[in-house]
Amino acid sequence: VALERYYATATCSPTRASVMSGRSLIHHGIFVPYNSIDTASGLNLSYSLLSDHLQQSYGYTTAMLGKWHLGMKTPAYLPSHRGFNYSFCFYQGMLDYWKHYNDMCSGGVTCSGLDLHGGGLWCRRWRVHDGGGDRWWSKSGLDLHENYGYEGATSGGSDVGVEWAVVNDTDVYHTVGDYSSDLFTRKAVELITKHGFLGVGNGYVLPPFFLYLAYQAIHSGNNKFLQAPDAYFHLPDIESLSPDYTCGQYETTSSCIGKDPSGSGKAARKSAAAQVRSMDDGVGDLVKALQRASMWDNTLLVWSSDNGGPTDGQDNNMANNFPLRGCKGGYFDGGLRVPAFVSGGSSLIGEDARGSSVYSGVFHATDWLPSLLTAAKRGATGDASAHHTIVVKDNERPFLKGDGVDNWDFIASGGYLPSARTEIIHAAQAEGSDFAFTSLLVGDMKLLVHPAGTDCGASHAGWYPPPGEDWNYANLTLNKVCGEPPADRNPPINSVCTSSNPCVFNLTSDPCEHVDLGADEAYASVLEDLQAALLEYQATTVLPYTVYSKDDANGDPRLNAPIFDAGTYAGVWRPWLTDEDDAALYPTHYEGPGYP
């Protein structure tokens, strides 16, 4: 089921926080990506995550692989302490694909800090008791094990014992030359294979399994290089994008564009395509592993991008959002409306829904948490009409207007049933905020003020086809609806959608945001209604974490000497604050605007 009107947030950390917590960025306060050693960085600890809910309500085993980017200042912010039994990840927002370091150290100095870590709680070995004595199957895992525990499950009267090993996060060395997409794919395949070892095919029922796999692709490596395995550059459809030049693995996109004989950036587009194909092959390997483990027929596979792509060389990348307007970091739909689909063999998706592309309603990143919890409940109970009721902790803020809604029926029916969502608050600002951008979708109509945010949203407010292509280069569905964009393809960012002249777009008739209706007298009442609706959201909007930001030199990875590969790494990224330091520097529980 392809969700053609799926919305994330404009950048990475905010979307990850919304997916994991089910909360809008106006409530979790992560409006922009985290800096490397910012003491304010970290998804509020009072929020329960999707992994917590799945564990506590339905007994899931959980694992997290890839990009975390939701905080690392104390161990409490790491995935292994936030509902994940196991994690194999990098903490920061970007990484070198081949050497696995993040290079932004204290004071803006470039250095190579290792950022690849494994930890959590994972199965060491299984015990089966079936009347003939105990039989153990050893399970290879991390080399570090402590605090052994026991947990049991039953199936058909036979005991299935699980010996767990609690594994503190440990730094992962000796991976230089191992491409990150391949690395995370292999780890995912390994975990799936282990989980299915005593699965349905052997007559035993294991705990349900939730895997959160957050590939690094197609982010540019450390915001500098588009890196991909060499073999992908020679695939015919990728090589044909730029047969005369290929960007180097450590060549910036700006340098590559300068050397590209076409002069258009096609070589950089070729590198981006190679990254995508590598990741796509990884997903294929994941599906095959699920099928081999007899798990596919009971699996839901959810795919979601975290933000629109950085286009036109921004962030040393060459992504493509066309014919949508804008790019990563901005609040035009090119920065927000992204690919998403749900697949898998599970009967939770109706047969009539399979293969459908749903244009009829909207779905937001915050909706995954309540929607997937309903899917989990239906899978656990066999009740096709059941809905999960979210229970929050004593110190946890309840779900508010703008947060996630249970939209599983919309997905499972392939859009035959209407979406439970009719509004999306993309951004609002509390008094005292560092930012000015606001955006709200109500029905067909979108309000937009000051789209400049981070990344290319600060400079790109127009329409950007792939390098060397005209607006009608492909027979795109949206092209048929939108037609040719305005003559000024890249208007000055400060001249559009300002606080004194807000933009209004009808996204049903004009999904590419060609025509601003904000100054049209015929839409004056529409603008007034949108502004009134925005005020309601602002009443519960919190201050962004940046209000509390403070770079801390003590978080510099060079203060943690590498144990191995010292020739590659100048240091290691690790948590550095005590809980007491964290509480003194940044409120664990938000206060101020938006809170009682």
Topology:
Elements (H helix, E strand, L loop, with lengths): L1 E2 L2 E2 L4 H10 L3 H4 L21 H9 L2 E7 L18 E5 L10 E4 L5 E5 L2 E13 L4 E5 L7 E10 L2 E14 L8 H16 L13 E6 L15 H4 L2 H4 L13 H7 L6 H27 L8 E4 L28 H4 L3 E4 L13 E2 L4 E2 L3 H14 L26 H5 L10 E5 L10 E5 L2 E5 L27 H6 L20 E4 L17 H15 L32 E2 L6 H7 L11
Parallel strand pairs: 1-14, 2-15, 3-4, 3-11, 6-20
Antiparallel strand pairs: 4-7, 5-6, 7-8, 7-10, 9-10, 12-13, 16-17, 17-18, 18-19
Helix pairs in contact: 3-10, 4-8
Number of strands: 20
The Cα radius of gyration reads 24 Å
Largest sheet: 7 strands, mixed
Principal-axes shape call = globular
Report the mean per-residue pLDDT as an integer.
86
Distance between the termini: 40 Å
**Tally of helical runs:** 14
Q: Which regions contain 5 or more consecutive residues with pLDDT less than 50?
A: 122-166
Q: Residue share in helices?
A: 10-25%
Helix and strand content put the structural class at alpha/beta
> Per DSSP, what share of the residues sits in E-state strands of 2 or more residues?
15-25%
Descriptive tags:
7-stranded mixed sheet; about 600 residues; alpha/beta; single chain
Report on the architecture of this protein.
There is one protein chain. The protein is α/β, with parallel strands linked by helices and 596 residues long. It has 14 helices and 20 strands. It has helices at residues 12-21, 25-28, 50-58, 180-195, 230-233, 236-239, 253-259, 266-292, 333-336, 368-381, 408-412, 477-482, 524-538, 579-585; strands at residues 2-3, 6-7, 61-67, 86-90, 101-104, 110-114, 117-129, 134-138, 146-155, 158-171, 209-214, 301-304, 340-343, 357-358, 363-364, 423-427, 438-442, 445-449, 503-506, 571-572. Strands 3, 4, 7, 8, 9, 10 and 11 form a seven-stranded mixed sheet that branches. A hairpin with a 2-residue loop joins strand 17 (438-442) and strand 18 (445-449). Helix 3 runs parallel beside helix 10 and helix 4 runs parallel beside helix 8 (266-292). The longest helix has 27 residues, at 266-292. The chain is globular, with a radius of gyration of 24 Å. Mean pLDDT is 86; it is low at 122-166.
